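dumping this here before i forget
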Amino acid sequence: MKKPMKPTRKYKKTGNRISEVVYETAKDLYAADAIDKTTMHEFDALCLPEVPRYTPEQIQTIRARCKCSQAVFAKYLNVSASSLKQWEIGTKKPAGVACKLLNIIDTKGLEALI
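structure:
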């Protein structure tokens, strides 16, 4: 009996047809029990979109689009207002989860965090 393939993580359409075909093949192999769950998770991880790094100007633009002060926007990101200010002037760069949150706000709007 063929095991149904649960939707795995949403993968990035890279425009690279070969990557997309390899991923679809891996899903089919998993459904046929030819590869295990761990291997399928590795394919999932390879297909996750990269989180962009934001320039100070881009961070300011995102915040301006949200119509927030630095203090309020920092609270949404769960960082200090000082950190946000340093990102916006370029003395520090956001990393990790902060970049991911900026990406979510940039693509889906501040409402995605509320």
